[in-house]
Amino acid sequence: MFSQLANELKQPCFLGRNKFDLALADAAHDGHNLTDAEIKQAIEQNIRENLAPLDVKKVYMVSARRPAHYDLPSLLEDIQGSF
Q1: Buried b vs exposed e over 5-38: b needs ≥16 C-beta within 10 Å?
Q2: Residue 51 has what pLDDT?
């Protein structure tokens, strides 16, 4: 679906990864000594690898439980700017 929207229909597409707060908590629980930025980078790299060869401009890390945190404000701004 992402490929069809982005490449064939030339529509703006935004990729959000929800529950980022849980990913951070899981990493801490598992004893990983990674920063939030390092965890974000690892998740984004994994997403890009799984979607290759598609070109994803940005992956937004969001959390429904903490909507003011992480990338949701940026995602909403970018969506609004695409109109």
Answers
A1: ebeeeeeebebebeebbebbeebeeeeeeeeeee
A2: 87
Q: Where are the beta strands (DSSP E) in 1-83?
A: 15-17, 59-61
| Number of helical (H) and strand (E) elements in the chain, helices listed first | 4, 2
pLDDT at site 3: 67
Could you tell me which residues come within 8 angstroms of residue 58 by beta carbon, excluding any fewer than 6 positions away? 14, 15, 78
The label of the residue with tokens 């109109």 reads 83
- CA-CA distance, 16 to 60, in Å (whole number)? 5
DSSP helix, strand, coil percent of the chain (3-state; round to 5): 50, 5, 40
Q: How confident is the chain (83 residues) per 10-residue block, as mean pLDDT?
A: 68 90 93 91 94 87 94 96 90
